[in-house]
Amino acid sequence: MKENVVIITGCSTGIGRNLAQTLFARGYRVVATARRLETIKDIPAALHLELDVTKQASVDAAISQTLTRLGRIDYLVNNAGHSVRAAIEDMDEKPAREMFDVNLWGLIRVTRAVLPHMRKRKAGRIIHVGSVVGKFTMPINGAYSASKHAVEAIANAMRVELKPFNIQVVLIEPGTINTQFMSSSIAKSQEQFDNSVSPYAKIYERFRTISAHPARKGALPKEVSQVIVRAMEAKHPKARYLAAVGPLYRAILIMNDRLRDSLMAKLFLK
Ligand SMILES: NC(=O)c1ccc[n+]([C@@H]2O[C@H](COP(=O)([O-])OP(=O)(O)OC[C@H]3O[C@@H](n4cnc5c(N)ncnc54)[C@H](OP(=O)(O)O)[C@@H]3O)[C@@H](O)[C@H]2O)c1
């Protein structure tokens, strides 16, 4: 394991940052990447590289520099992601497309850049950081959830496509994690949330109240890192791992549509 090279996207904050630190401490050769190099300079790593997952040239440069300097890539962790929130009718197309460009197309871009190398070696493991909301959807989170549902579909296809090449694909499905994620999501959706004449103003208000509740603060990023380490080091990894998913979300996962809709209505329409 000591010599294994792992490249991680989105290491500036949150889960990516913690994972880079955790894997470095376990002896991995970590390639920490971020859109702005200055945000990761303090992370201990074998390499620090600029990588914006929305830019093909940036992706290609990061993968080729890794291969030139470290000679191989054993693991790719597709972690970069963000969310924008609004009712579907209120959702501006541009930020929603930009989100898909990171959460879905960014993940595909980086994966495709790494695959020729992994196929050639007939070895490798790809970890996609999805979300528990890749399995169910909450009001005003439809677009983000759609991007994470898409990640589930991509992973399901890739698991079988890559079997002949001895490359495993694993999905990590975190619950609520205490990172920049929520505040950046609210900031990106501020215009909709502040629109008091929106037909959905009440739901936005309700969401703000729910998300400000201390119980919604979420788990520490290290809980997700621990699950990712487990997925990386398992001899035969599972297709998907829930990570820091609390009892409410676990219950929602097994509800039928009628029950889930009525719970969501109770939470968001009261
Ligand atoms: N926090 C949660 O509750 C939660 C739950 C389920 C799943 N997740 C998923 O976990 C992953 C990590 O999120 P987090 O909670 O750690 O949030 P975070 O602290 O906001 O970190 C998100 C990371 O993604 C990076 N990123 C955004 N756009 C990028 C781009 N174009 N190219 C490269 N990097 C980019 C950010 O970099 P900048 O600093 O440059 O913006 C940041 O490093 C995401 O995929 C998220 O969807 C989070």
Mean pLDDT: 96
List the quaternary state of the chains: single chain
Could you name the CATH topology?
Rossmann fold
| Residues in β-strands, percent | 5-15%
Rg: 19 Å
How many extended strands? 7
CATH superfamily annotation = NAD(P)-binding Rossmann-like Domain
Largest sheet: 7 strands, parallel
Name of the CATH first level: Alpha Beta
Count of alpha/pi helices? 10
What small molecules accompany the polymer chains? NADP nicotinamide-adenine-dinucleotide phosphate
Strand order of the largest sheet: 3-2-1-4-5-6-7
* Measured distance between first and last alpha carbons: 52 Å
Unreliable sequence segments: none
Helix content: 40-55%
- Given helix and strand content, the structural type is alpha/beta
Pattern of helices and strands = EHEEHEHEHEHHHHEHH
The CATH architecture is: 3-Layer(aba) Sandwich
What's the structural domain tally?
A: 1
Shape: globular
Q: Can you walk me through this structure?
A:
- The chain has helices spanning 14-25, 56-70, 93-121, 142-161, 181-188, 190-193, 201-212, 221-233, 247-253, 257-268, and strands at 5-8, 29-34, 47-50, 75-78, 124-129, 167-174, 240-243.
- It has one domain: Rossmann fold (3-Layer(aba) Sandwich), CATH 3.40.50.
- Helix 3 packs parallel to helix 4 (142-161).
- It is an alpha/beta fold.
- The structure holds NADP nicotinamide-adenine-dinucleotide phosphate (NAP).
